[in-house]
Amino acid sequence: MLAGTFGWSEAPVTYSGLLLNAGLLLAWGAFAALRAGYRRRSAVLIGGADAAIGLATAAANAVIK
Predict the structure, then answer these.
(1) CA-CA distance, 53 to 25, in Å (whole number)?
(2) Among 27, 9, 8, which Cα is nearest to 19's?
(3) Of 65, 58, 56, 54, whose CA–CA distance to 25 is shortest?
(4) In the 3-class helix/strand/coil scheme, how is 15-38 assigned residue by residue?
(5) Residue 22: which of 52, 44, 46, 65 has the closest Cα?
(6) What's the pLDDT band for 31 if we cut at 50, 70, 90?
(7) Using alpha carbons only, what angle is made at residue 13 by residues 12 and 14, rounded to the nearest 5 degrees?
(8) How far apart, in whole angstroms, are the C-alpha atoms of residue 26 and residue 15?
């Protein structure tokens, strides 16, 4: 909403949103893995896999459109 209100260009806003979403996927994935009993390294790898799946989904969506 802020981007539309203030007239920000589309590309930086899109990239910022994508980066934010990937970071959130990494953090929540790692947090959930830690709560499930995984060790830190494994939890970070699981969070990284979640982020990679999210980025792959966004890339596939961009290719399809």
Answers:
(1) 9
(2) 27
(3) 54
(4) HHHHHHHHHHHHHHHHHHHHHCCC
(5) 52
(6) very high
(7) 90
(8) 16
Q: How many residues does the chain have?
A: 65
The pLDDT of residue 22: 94
Asked if pLDDT for residue 30 goes beyond 90, the answer is yes
Alpha-carbon gap, residue 35 to 50, rounded angstroms: 16
| Per-residue pLDDT band at 41 (split at 50, 70, 90) | very high
The DSSP H or E segment spanning 7 is none
